[in-house]
Write a structure and sequence with these properties.
Blueprint lengths: L2 H7 L5 E5 L4 E5 L2 E5 L5 E7 L5 E9 L4 E5 L2 E4 L8 H13 L1 E13 L8 E12 L12 E6 L3 H10 L3 E2 L2 H8 L7
Parallel strand pairs: 4-9, 6-11
Antiparallel strand pairs: 1-2, 2-3, 4-7, 5-6, 5-10, 8-9
């Protein structure tokens, strides 16, 4: 057995260093990371309207101290304990953008920050969009909606970065996973 394998089998159980309202800070054999105890996943929604407008959201993110342009996204299990991923994706899409989808198609799943978090994100392609409300998030959120023509997406994101906002790279990953080409 390799030294690495031996040390993995002789490890002490992870221990809690601190608990916050939403995160628990863990030490696991000298490696520190956070978990979200009440959350079973993260969903990110790729939503493009029939007239080729991608739905994006903008909100203040305290961890980076900036407004960030993102795909609609949210936590799974924070509202309903056994919430299915596709139902959480539908809920988040409607809350944040005011659109519902005829179907949610899972296009990719994987960890997002393996060095510091246990979070796994699931990307959904929302199909058959219909506006059903104003969006903007729930009472605890202040979300600005953007409906950006795919042909103008690169210029839009560059302009927002020039204005000092950050752009979440999951926009590019999500579009790619959903097989949506962004014109050059």
């Amino acid at each position: 057995m390799s030294e690495q394998a031996k040390s993995a089998t002789n490890k002490a159980a992870p221990r809690v260093l601190a608990r916050g309202r939403y995160l628990t800070f863990i030490d696991d054999g000298g490696w520190e990371y956070v978990i979200r105890p009440q959350v079973t996943g993260i969903v990110v929604i790729v939503a493009v309207t029939d007239d080729a407008r991608v739905l994006l959201v903008e909100q203040w993110r305290p961890a980076v101290r900036k407004r960030v342009i993102e795909l609609p996204a949210g936590l799974v299990g924070d509202v309903e304990a056994d919430e299915p991923l596709d139902k959480a994706a539908a809920r988040e899409l409607e809350e944040e953008t005011g659109f519902s989808a005829r179907e949610m198609v899972l296009v990719g799943t994987g960890p997002i920050a393996v060095g510091v978090s246990d979070e796994v994100v699931s990307f959904f392609h929302a199909r058959g969009l219909t506006r059903v409300g104003p969006g903007g998030g729930d009472a605890s959120e202040s979300i600005v909606n953007h409906e950006v023509p795919l042909a103008e997406l690169r210029a839009f994101l560059a302009a927002r970065m020039a204005d000092g906002l950050l752009v979440d790279v999951k926009i590019h990953a999500g579009l790619s996973l959903a097989g949506i080409a962004v014109p050059a």
